[in-house]
Every structure is written in structure tokens, then in C-alpha cells.
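Summary for the lay section of the report: proteins are chains of building blocks that fold into shapes. Here we show the chain for Carboxymuconolactone decarboxylase family protein and then a coded description of the shape we predicted for it.
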Amino acid sequence: MAKIIFSQEGLSPFQQLLGHNKYVLEKWSSLEECFFNSNTFTTELKEEVRRTLAFNNGCQYCMARGKPSDGITDSKILIATKIADIVSKNQPISDEYFNKLKKEFTDNEISELLALICFITASQRFGALLDLQPSCPI
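The coded shape description reads as follows.
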């Protein structure tokens, strides 16, 4: 059971926890929509980044949607998930990995990828802080 009660705002358990402040929920959901509707990255890349982060951020609700995939061969997904792993462990991105990132992505893509990683991390840490579980009833 989550550590606070669910609000009446929002469609998912996550949104109902955030929905205690309707304005924050609206803006948060708008930014989430912006990231996940962006065509900059494939759906697969975004999902693998999300999965990587879920297990490092300790969000049970997010982990229930699947573990990171084994055997990824796409070079963009490999470096994106490695960067997500580094960032979610609060480690600096070494010059070596930043150079690998720059070989695969433009500056615009790097900016969006890092913003996506930070946004997902914030969402997952919020869920973890409030002990959001995969089976939370709403």
C-alpha cells in the first residue's frame, strides 16, 4: 500500500499520488506526453531506458513492467541504457562514455536523452518514495 492515500485526480495509481496537486499533475503529465510522443528516439530505446532506470531507482511499480532486455545489439540503445545506468547511480559520465554518446547522437538528441533520463528518474523516485506497488488499487 502506498504511503499516502490516492487522490481523485489522475488515471493511474502514479497520477493519483501526484494528483494531490492538480496543477503539478497536469504539467507533469504534459511533459511526460512530450517525451513519449517525441519521434527523436524509437519506442524501443525509450522503453529500454525506462526499464534500466526502474531497477536502479527502486520503483516496484515500474519494475513490474519488465526487466531490461538481454542481447541488445542496437548501438544507440546500448549507449543510451549505459548512460541511464550511470546517471541513475549518481555517477559522473566519463569522457570515454560521453565520447561514445557523441558518436551515436547529435547534440539535440543528447540534450533530449539526458532530459528524458532525468524525468523518468524523478518519476520513478517519486513512486519509490511513496512505496507505489504494482498492485496498488485505485
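Put simply, here is one thing we learned. The chain is about 65% helix and 0% strand.
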